[in-house]
């Protein structure tokens, strides 16, 4: 063999002359010191035969492959085979042996069989891990033979594989199918430590590593999730910067997790046509992957979240929200979802509205919209509510001079409210609670909040007057811009009292704007203070005027109620008057009776005045009757 390289390995001086091990291209040729009793191996269908003049006396089955070999070469090097009691063959021509759960399978056993027969064997990063595990399974120790396979594979791992970045990745990748042997023999741990040491060695050039998408990101991205997590843990222990670790985790997630594209069919309007939230899996669709594939993706999501660095600058908010959506889709644990919500709350000021639109799904229902009896909302409003609460808790823990994220979060929340307000199934309670989630001083301008409320009123035209007033109480009309005031003053969806308050606020703003346009000397601060004080006085006067209007309205309502009460009393009295008296009133009110009474009064009024006590004379009473 031309492929040969020298490997330093511990062995006795007597064996140096017998074993001339040469290495080349990271593979090794092991010549035999035994006399060959086998020239080669031949494969026929699912069987391997030893080409030899000596008849075989041992049949070994590994998986679905049968090997016909000789007992002595295997017993001399494998302690396991020498200790077990071999079962006689059915044909009485030898013994039968079946190896269950053999590490590496039939391909690895073929190499071991060649080694036992003294044929040349190549060790390389692709097979050294499986050979190390298989030699441990067969107990190929130095007690049976000097330079047995355990010592040779250990020497190759230590001096060849662990000194090379690429070989360490290759061996770690090959350990995916060798559990638990590779774990018990510390092959995985040693490879992870080797990779971590080499990755952290260039910690001084972190900027170049991130900008180039990582010279080692692509290599570790091919690893299975448990081995990747072990590697990242080892890298963190070496002190690598959290930004680099976060970039590596993001790169791994992009390679292994399917993309999620949330879009609304139609004109992005709720309640028109097909408006269901469509979940598009760009690769590896959940329906096609099966339950096993979904469990694997769930395990990947949970593992990636568990190894995220705790620093807030490690990963962007966009990635955290994407992972949160994937956690909801693949039914991750509630503890993990809560952890992601807390992390999003810490960096909420860096989010955008589209990333914050978290779809609502049934637990365990894959990729389908959640439809429950309580809520039919398209988006998970409760999750956003919890995220905002986590943000406020985090803000309270910061020093006063670091609290600068509420303004951005208030704009983000107003835009989010405007988006979800188009959902016809969104209850006013949830909308109102989310609108009041931030403190009063968080918003310097209420234009975005007004736009969200107006959108909600437009989408829900059947709201009662009480609910409209309740919703509008969230706004501070003095924090509306002049344009927003002009729009609100003409908005027939707002309650009348709200429109009046907006008109007053608009009048104040117009006066302030007009005064602001007047020429003012740059050095006369006193005039500016006077104009500000006058504007404040006008605001106070308008407030007093508004209070007087309210009092007048209350007085009018009270008088109106008293009048209604008096009318009810009169109606009740009329119902109690006898029918003959009603008939008499009709006659009395008739025109003939009125004319007659007028004539009598005109004829007698001059002759006999009424008595001073106001009673009519007896003659007048007789004439009237």
Biggest sheet character: 6 strands, mixed
- Overall pLDDT confidence: 76
Q: Based on helices, strands and strand pairing, what is the structural class?
A: alpha+beta
The CA-CA distance between the termini, in Å, is 151 Å
Order of strands across the main sheet:
3-4-6-5-8-7
Write out key terms for the chains shown.
disordered N terminus; 625 residues; 6-stranded mixed sheet; disordered C terminus; 3-stranded antiparallel sheet; alpha+beta; elongated; 27 helices
Structure, described:
- By secondary structure, this protein is an alpha+beta fold.
- Helices cover 54% and strands 7% of the residues.
- It is built from 27 helices and 11 strands.
- The strands form 3 sheets. The protein has a 6-stranded mixed sheet with strand order 3-4-6-5-8-7, covered by helices on one side. Strands 1-2-9 form a 3-stranded antiparallel sheet, with no helix packed on it.
- Helix 8 packs across helix 11 (225-237) and helix 18 (406-420) packs parallel to helix 20 (447-459).
- The protein is elongated.
- Residues 1-26, 31-35, 204-211, 261-288, 364-374, 518-526 and 600-625 have low confidence and may be disordered.
What secondary-structure arrangement, pairings included, does this model have?
Layout (H helix, E strand, L loop, with lengths): L21 E3 L2 E3 L10 E5 L2 E5 L6 E5 L2 E5 L1 H7 L1 H5 L3 E2 L6 E5 L5 H13 L4 E2 L4 H10 L11 H13 L3 H10 L6 H4 L2 H14 L5 H6 L5 H4 L4 H13 L4 H15 L3 E5 L12 E5 L4 H21 L10 H13 L4 H13 L6 H4 L24 H17 L8 H15 L7 H8 L11 H13 L5 H8 L9 H8 L6 H22 L7 H52 L2 H10 L2 H14 L13 H7 L1
């Amino acid at each position: 063999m031309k492929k040969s390289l020298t490997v330093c390995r511990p062995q006795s001086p007597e064996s140096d002359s017998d074993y001339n091990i040469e290495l080349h291209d990271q593979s090794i040729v092991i010549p035999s010191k035994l006399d060959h009793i086998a020239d080669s191996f031949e494969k026929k269908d699912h069987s391997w035969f030893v080409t030899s003049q000596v008849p075989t006396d041992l049949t070994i089955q590994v998986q679905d492959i049968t090997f016909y070999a000789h007992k002595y070469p295997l017993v001399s090097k494998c302690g396991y085979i020498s200790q077990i009691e071999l079962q006689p063959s059915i044909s009485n021509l030898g013994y039968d042996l079946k190896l269950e759960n053999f590490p590496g399978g039939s391909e690895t056993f073929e190499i071991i069989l060649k080694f036992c027969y003294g044929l040349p064997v190549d060790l390389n990063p692709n097979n050294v891990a499986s050979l190390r595990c298989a030699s441990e399974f067969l107990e190929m120790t130095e007690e049976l033979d000097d330079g047995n396979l355990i010592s040779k594979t250990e020497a190759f791992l230590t001096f060849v594989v662990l000194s090379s970045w690429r070989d360490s990745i290759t061996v770690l990748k090959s350990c995916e199918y060798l559990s638990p042997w590779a774990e018990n023999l510390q092959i995985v741990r040693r490879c992870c430590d080797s990779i971590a040491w080499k990755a952290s060695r260039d910690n001084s050039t972190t900027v170049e590593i991130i900008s180039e998408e990582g010279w080692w990101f692509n290599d570790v991205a091919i690893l299975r999730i448990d081995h990747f997590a072990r590697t990242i843990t080892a890298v963190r222990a070496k002190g690598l910067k959290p930004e680099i670790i976060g970039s590596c985790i993001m790169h791994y997630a992009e390679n292994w997790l399917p993309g999620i594209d949330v879009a609304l069919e139609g004109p992005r309007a709720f309640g028109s046509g097909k408006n269901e939230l469509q979940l598009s899996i760009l690769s590896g669709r959940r329906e096609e992957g099966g339950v096993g594939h979904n469990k694997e993706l769930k395990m990947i999501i949970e593992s990636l979240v568990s190894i995220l660095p705790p620093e807030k600058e490690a990963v962007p908010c966009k990635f955290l929200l994407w992972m949160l959506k994937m956690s909801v889709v693949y039914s991750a644990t509630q503890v993990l979802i809560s952890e992601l919500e807390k992390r999003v709350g810490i960096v909420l000021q860096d989010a955008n509205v589209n990333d914050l639109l978290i779809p609502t799904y049934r637990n365990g229902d894959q990729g389908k919209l959640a439809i429950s009896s309580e809520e039919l909302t398209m988006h998970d409003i409760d999750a956003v509510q919890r995220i905002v609460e986590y943000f406020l808790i985090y803000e309270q823990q910061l020093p006063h001079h670091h609290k600068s994220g509420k303004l951005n979060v208030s704009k983000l929340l107003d835009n989010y409210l405007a988006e979800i307000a188009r959902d016809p199934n969104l209850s006013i309670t949830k909308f109102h609670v989310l609108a009041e989630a931030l403190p009063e001083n968080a918003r310097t301008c209420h234009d975005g909040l007004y736009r969200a409320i107006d959108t909600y009123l437009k989408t829900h035209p059947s709201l009662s007057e009480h609910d409209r007033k309740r919703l509008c109480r969230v706004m501070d009309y003095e924090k509306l811009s002049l344009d927003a005031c002009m729009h609100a003053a003409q908005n027939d969806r707002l309650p009348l009292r709200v429109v009046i308050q907006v008109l007053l606020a608009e009048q104040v703003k117009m006066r302030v704007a007009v005064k602001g346009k007047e020429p003012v000397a740059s050095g006369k601060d006193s005039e500016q203070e006077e104009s500000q004080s006058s504007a404040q006085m006008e605001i106070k006067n308008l407030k007093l005027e508004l209070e007087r209007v309210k009092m007048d309205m209350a007085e009018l309502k009270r008088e109106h109620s008293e009048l209604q009460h008096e009318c009810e009393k009169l109606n009740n009295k009329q119902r109690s008057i006898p029918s003959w008296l009603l008939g008499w009133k009709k006659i009395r009110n008739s025109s003939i009776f009125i004319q007659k009474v007028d004539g009598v009064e005109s004829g007698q009024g001059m002759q006999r005045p009424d008595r001073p006590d106001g009673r009519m004379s007896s003659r007048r009473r007789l004439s009237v009757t």
